[in-house]
Amino acid sequence: MELQTLKNILEALLLSADKPMDVRHLDGLFEADEDRPSKDEIRQALQLLQEDYAERGIQLKEVSSGFRMQVAEEYAPWVSRLWEEKAPRYSRALLETLVLIAYRQPITRGEIEDIRGVSVSSHIVKTLQEREWIRVLGHKDVPGKPAMYGTTREFLDYFNLKTLDELPPLSDIKDLDKIHPELALSDEAVNDESEAVTETDTMAEGQAIADSDEVSQDVAADEAVVEASAAEDDEAIATETDAEQTVEVEVVAADEDQLESTESAAVEEESEHEQAPSDEASNEVQTG
What pTM did the predictor assign? Predict the structure, then answer.
């Protein structure tokens, strides 16, 4: 395949693609062709394309995931006016966290907090993960097994980097506002994040108070039920005790009545026996 034809095909592919394409992927698109170019020829054509676009409004840029056609950075302000929505703005705390992860990876949240001297909000970590700029690389072998964070290919692609080696020296980053035009800081962004965190903390605190009140009410209700049940049990026991005592008194009274009746019968019988000999003696005297 002629080199100029290969350049045109690659140019059309890269302009139509919605993501970066590496040499392996591009080579696979020529698999069905009889006059299939080699990977070296593809690399040569890509290099020539980069030279062709060097002085134009768009450029062929090699990033971590492959090659892509993009607007030259110096013309981004005009192109951004095509869209009404504003570019996202991030707080200084988020950028400092991202810089530490990029330069010190793998790094844990606790280590970031030790370096910055303040706690890292869960909102910051969540935002970076949603942007797919950071990911969990593993867990540190210490108590608690904290997650270790590192950057992603998406991070490199977004910042036009092929590898982490292309990051500027950390000593050169004196003004975080200049890391990237779309990441310019503003007091509004900082305040918005602070308000969001404060609102989240307030909601959490309010929910905790509500849960505490609900638990207190449940405990009070349980205690009332227990006290009522205990009172009923005490009343039942008292009633049962009174009934038992009444039965015992009645039994004792019946036994005493029966005993008295038995004693009275015995006395009467004894009196009858004593009277009988006296009557016999009287009869003998009268007979004589």
Answer: 0.53
